[in-house]
Amino acid sequence: MREERKNRSSVMSTSDRSIFRLTGSDTESFLQGLITNDMAHLTDGLLYAAILTPQGKYLADFFLKRDEDAVLLDADAAQAPALQQRLTMYKLRADVTIEPTDLHLHRGLSATPEDGATDPRTPELGWRAYRDTLQTDDTTDWTALYVANKVPNAGLELDQNSFILEMGFERLNGVDFKKGCYVGQEVTARMKHKTELRKGLALVRVDGPASPGATILKGDREVGTLHSVAGDQALAYLRFDRAGEDMTAGDAKISYPA
Fold it and tell me: What is the reported pLDDT for 13?
């Protein structure tokens, strides 16, 4: 069973992000050989991708956006130092400079502003933009939106034991199977061609008090772990071959499908 996540709020704010600027003539070819998505999609606006271990396990996920001759990288703030270190380790003699910026993430569900771009995971998550000032006008319940759309988040559903296909990255436009090689590609491709995933992210219904990180049981058998909770719905990592009726997480009853 997956290890419990560290205690972390399920309410993600725009200040939980770090924005880097990557410059240099090798920037796009450098990223192309590392990330799960195809840099060619940058022409569409925002690109969602991850970087994996050679064993195909998740290290970090992020957004990329062209910014004139540079590329902006929007990452979870808690992961940012390790991600910058990993990218620096891989770049060797490539002409790539990775620098933090003073930019801040803005997001919303209204019409996309001129400096914004639609969230590539799903249009239900609105737009993202990068500005010099902190966002102070956002009252959206993002956790409820993430749960309803089965969108995992770093440090909550996503950790170092995650495989991105189990976490829905294909559905969320975070992986491209035609782009060629990248770190962890072989394992990801093998999982893609399996007949069926036996484990993965699921939307469940919760009846009763439940806390993220709680073990989901069916009788006395572990079948998964509960993660982000929003009202009577939650995200869970489940063993699909074991899940079903009469599941519990602490004092709550868990139903799947939701």
Answer: 64
CA-nearest of 221, 206, 209 to 256 is 206
- Residue from 36, 45, 79, 64 nearest 168 by CA: 36
Within 13 Å and on the Cβ side, how many CA atoms surround 257?
A: 2
**What's the rounded Cα separation, in Å, for the pair 125 and 149?**
9
Give the span between the Cα atoms of 59 and 36, in whole angstroms. Answer: 11
Other C-beta atoms lying within 10 Å of the C-beta of residue 90: 15
Angle at 139 between CA 249 and CA 206, to 5 degrees: 15
CB 40 within 8 A of CB 112: no
124, 46 contact by CB (below 8 A): no
Main-chain phi, psi angles of 82, to 5 degrees: -70, -35
Provide, for the chain, the percentages of residues in helix, strand and coil under a 3-state DSSP scheme, each rounded to the nearest 5: 15, 35, 50
Per the confidence metrics, is the pTM higher than 0.85?
Answer: yes
One-letter amino acid of 238: L
Distance CA 17, CA 10 (A): 14
pLDDT in tens, 56-84: 999 999 999 999 999 999 999 999 999 99
**H helix and E strand count, the chain:** 4, 14
Contact indicator for 5, 160 with CB cutoff of 8 Å = no
Question: Coil, strand, or helix at residue 155?
Answer: coil
97-100 and 17-23 strand pairing = antiparallel
